[in-house]
Write a structure and sequence with these properties.
Elements (H helix, E strand, L loop, with lengths): L8 H9 L5 E5 L14 E4 L9 H8 L5 E7 L8 H9 L5 E5 L1 H8 L4 E6 L9 E5 L3
Helix pairs in contact: 2-3
């Protein structure tokens, strides 16, 4: 029996395959993970029910296994209060680089062959999608 922050075998196996500069997408419940992800990516479905497993919880647990050097977020409208973005920034290390991409550019990046892992969350908040660039150990 594993004594770790993550017990999901497919997720653990996929994390083990991620190296420096690999991309990991945590997708909200509105994101089409099949059509807007790399064809070679492993998709792990953690979206059992709306808001059951939110993106911040997933990010918090991932950070016990990987270092993140960059976080790419989908840009939200100027008049939108993106509360989840603030949660991500509280969880990620201070030195994390941030980048915001418009929707189509975000989709193009997520479809990159560098995206090896896609995690479908139950997060219902809008603009909760985040692409993590794995850092060095």
């Amino acid at each position: 029996m594993l004594k770790s922050e993550i017990l999901h075998p497919q997720l653990l196996g996929s994390l083990a395959q991620c190296g420096h500069k690999t991309l990991i997408l945590i997708a909200d419940s509105n994101y089409s993970v099949v059509t807007n992800s790399s064809p070679g990516a492993t998709i792990v479905y953690l979206n059992f029910a709306p808001d059951m497993i939110g993106s911040p919880v997933i990010l918090e647990k991932l950070l016990t296994y990987i270092n993140v050097e960059k976080a790419t977020l989908m840009a939200s409208p100027d008049d939108f209060e993106n509360t989840i973005e603030k949660e991500y920034q509280r969880l990620l290390p201070f030195e994390t680089e941030y980048c915001w991409l418009q929707r189509d550019d975000f989709y193009r990046q997520a479809k990159s062959s560098d995206t090896l892992l896609v995690i479908a969350s139950g997060e219902t908040r809008r603009f909760a999608n985040i692409l993590l660039t794995v850092g060095v150990v």
